[in-house]
Amino acid sequence: MAKAAGGQLFTLLEGPESAGHTRRSQVYKSCLKAILDGRLARGSRLPSARELARDWRISRNTIDEALLQLQADGFLERRVGDGTYVSRDLPSTASRKPAAMRPASRAAQASYSAWAQRALHSRLPGGSPQPRAFFAGFPALEFFPLDLWQRLTTRRYRTGGRDLLGYMPSMGLPALREATARHLAISRGVTCAPEQVMILNSLIQGVELLSRVLLERDDAVWVEEAGYPNVRTALSMSGARLVPVPMDEEGLDVAAGQELAPKPALVHVTPAFQYPSGTRMSLQRRLALLEWANRSGAWIVEDDYQGDFNYEARNIEPLQALDRASRVIHLGTYTNAVFPSLRLAYMVIPPPLCAVFEAVRSQLDDHTHGIQQAVLADFIDGGHLSSHMRRMRSIYKSRRDTLLGELHATLRDEYPLGPAHGGMNVAMHLPKAMRDAPLCERGWKAGLHLAPLSRHAPTQGGLNGLFLGYAALSEREIRAGARRLARFIEAEHRRR
């Protein structure tokens, strides 16, 4: 067995002469297999011929001959005085996927759970390193103050960084819980003590956690008739029964929900900017929901995803701030305000539930990255987050206005748009004759990153359209993307 410079091991193939192979052929095929399987990565350094000869107990001349043949075939490069490396540009025959990367057979897929099979077949095309029109839910990272973040990170490592390398408290780093409570009070009007704040790895983790704490199998859960698929998945994994509740221009219809399921254990809503329609829940509906929850004993999960980005005169008051009976769990994320790979979110828990949430969290993943929590706390306390968000609201508002103007100019209002008071996306509705899912697949091939609205409402057949993100695109890219989208839609219209 030989070790490459990167630390990966690869073994000499067995059975040389008896299988009709020479020693040279055996070495050649062993190295080639390691390259094709990815165990010897492109650009990685091979052990020296002397090391290979010693480990495999083969003459060095035989090793040299095999490596020269691999070099002649384009798999290796020899650098004078530096050794032998796997070529970065491998021959086309090396483009075959290793067995581990090939799609599973139908027989293998049959062994997956029902949930896993649904997840496998509901995947959308993957994103690209540089988001294209109209990649949804991605922030404009070019404006993030990365140099400042790096300085704050370096300072944290220099001043007590070792203390942040161990296990963190299950509720989160106290400094970030305090900073989050202050930030929410100023930016969203949320009223809470730091002790009510739990720091999470993601908003979805919060949904999974609260479903473990509050739901039993077959419990009814109200969800908006259209919503984020991953939230539905997280709620249903507890065995709960999801009840899609109709919405109108005022948001979730509380009266309709009571008719469908009078005694749900929990309600999940996105009142600031309904996902994906963009509708804002009216004050009357918010008060009605709170009054009903207090009377029935149901918990309300207020999902404030993208609630930081409001482009109107003022934000709507969150349910948590209106709640007088401690029935609301407020969820939010730093993904859009900072950057996605930060992987930090938060949950504001009613005081009676704090102890049980902490206990359950400690039995699962237990805690979140310490250094990142500390740096984010410094970023907030220094006023940098609020400054960055003010700037981004202005930029996103301008980009939203550009998109709406271009869609109006190119598509002439033939395809209605949903409300766009805030957030980072806008919904565009299509006629029923243009089915959104296959249209989005064809759009991907045409250079457009489109998401079907129907994906957000699997049980509601009337939702048909496109979910368009604009935050990560420059105004020039938005204009070009809107024109490309208009040409694509017109071509699709002619196909009918």
TrEMBL record:
<feature type="domain" description="HTH gntR-type">
    <location>
        <begin position="21"/>
        <end position="89"/>
    </location>
</feature>
<keyword id="KW-0804">Transcription</keyword>
<dbReference type="InterPro" id="IPR015421">
    <property type="entry name" value="PyrdxlP-dep_Trfase_major"/>
</dbReference>
<dbReference type="Pfam" id="PF00155">
    <property type="entry name" value="Aminotran_1_2"/>
</dbReference>
<dbReference type="GO" id="GO:0003677">
    <property type="term" value="F:DNA binding"/>
</dbReference>
<dbReference type="InterPro" id="IPR036388">
    <property type="entry name" value="WH-like_DNA-bd_sf"/>
</dbReference>
<dbReference type="InterPro" id="IPR004839">
    <property type="entry name" value="Aminotransferase_I/II_large"/>
</dbReference>
<dbReference type="GO" id="GO:0030170">
    <property type="term" value="F:pyridoxal phosphate binding"/>
</dbReference>
<dbReference type="InterPro" id="IPR015424">
    <property type="entry name" value="PyrdxlP-dep_Trfase"/>
</dbReference>
<dbReference type="GO" id="GO:0003700">
    <property type="term" value="F:DNA-binding transcription factor activity"/>
</dbReference>
<dbReference type="InterPro" id="IPR000524">
    <property type="entry name" value="Tscrpt_reg_HTH_GntR"/>
</dbReference>
<keyword id="KW-0805">Transcription regulation</keyword>
<keyword id="KW-0663">Pyridoxal phosphate</keyword>
<dbReference type="InterPro" id="IPR051446">
    <property type="entry name" value="HTH_trans_reg/aminotransferase"/>
</dbReference>
<protein>
    <submittedName>
        <fullName>HTH-type transcriptional regulatory protein GabR</fullName>
    </submittedName>
</protein>
<dbReference type="Pfam" id="PF00392">
    <property type="entry name" value="GntR"/>
</dbReference>
<keyword id="KW-0238">DNA-binding</keyword>
<dbReference type="InterPro" id="IPR036390">
    <property type="entry name" value="WH_DNA-bd_sf"/>
</dbReference>
<comment type="similarity">
    <text>In the C-terminal section; belongs to the class-I pyridoxal-phosphate-dependent aminotransferase family.</text>
</comment>
